[in-house]
Specification:
This protein folds into 2 domains: 158 residues, Lyase, Ornithine Decarboxylase, Chain A, domain 1; 246 residues, TIM Barrel, CATH 3.20.20.10. Helix content is 28%, strand content 25%. It is built from 12 helices and 21 strands. Bound molecules: ligand LLP. Its cofactor is pyridoxal 5'-phosphate.
Length: 421
Amino acid sequence: MDHFNYRNGELYAEDVPVAKIAAEVGTPVYVYSTATLERHFNVFSQAFDGANALVCFAVKANSNLAVLKTLARLGAGADVVSEGELRRALAAGIPASKIVFSGVGKKPSEMELALEVGIHQFNVESEPEVHVLSDVASRMGKTAQIAFRVNPDVDAKTHAKISTGKAENKFGVPWQDASRIYGEAAKLPGIEIKGVDVHIGSQLTDLEPFANAFDRVRELVQQLRSEGHDITRVDLGGGLGIPYDGNIPPSPVSYANVALNSIGNLGCQLIFEPGRLIVGNAGILVSEVVYVKQGAERKFVILDAAMNDLVRPAMYDGYHQIDTVREPDGSVSLEAADVVGPVCETGDTFARGRDLPPVAAGDFVAFRSAGAYGAVMASTYNTRPLVPEVLVNGDHYAVIRARPELDALLELDTIPDWLES
Ligand code: LLP
């Protein structure tokens, strides 16, 4: 459920007309709803009421400071994968004690900052990494609390580019080596083993892969305990999908049942890293129709948003519902069109043959479910400025990231002196 609805013949974000934001801030623009963010975070965390659970929002899904602060106020922790994300989480007021650090390529400088501020846990993904972490922590006189991310070799049945739990993927330590790797890490200075971590992929719409992975984690926890490790935490990652195309994925409550059935009685702290589920449907991307063009074979609706602003369709064949900001008249007949951006690539196509109400230049459209992996993945390809972001709260809104001036983009480059003369 979200708070983007038609009212008085036009699309509203909570109590603000989307067309008003589009006119005042310009397009393309991401618009987020506070009430939806809050609702999604609360629904997820309440599903674990009574369990010892820490919900660490996956910052990679949406790292805007205002979004993070909205979640921080509800008690969210953070799952970060870079120094930049760690700094963002801290700047938004998320306490270090609720931050976990994931990722296969953590550098010593990133470990240093994380140790300095005292994060909750490093999710270590390889043997070389745990050795570097041991060196860095020992040098600093600190102890890193760690979980190894284990690769359970489970098929997440999602898009290949966002599936992470198969043996062939780069993530985690191999399942069959886990016991040995834990045993060796336990001897390292500066390392304190706390838990087991798993994350099998994103946009999962089926609970079975979760159940399989979590059951394997339970067995591993029992084995590691029998080998003398004091395992007190289990991090089950993120990955629960959201409805993009009308198919309704399992609810957070059903997901919680699967997790609790499997892991609930181990007496561990349970850590979750949801990203998309919290922010996905809390955001839309609003764009203006620039031209409607009749090609030889197809009709094209050409927008001022492009693949650099929302890359999911080009990168993962991602489906986003596209609504007109003016509410369509129920009697109007839909017309199939390719919805495209202005970037000079055929891949800059948001939808092919999509049935839409008739639109004309100057109309606004909204891509639904664009709050996760939208703005964070934007680029300046074709020297297009990064897309701005707006946060709505009830009947008011704020620009939470302004559209950069084009001059600022040009100023990032420098001309070497041999070209000056
Ligand atoms: N934890 C780890 C270690 C992750 O790698 C991810 C996502 C998450 C948590 C959060 O997963 P979520 O709950 O959001 O599914 N750009 C792609 C998605 C990439 C996901 C990467 N990892 C997309 O737009 O579909």
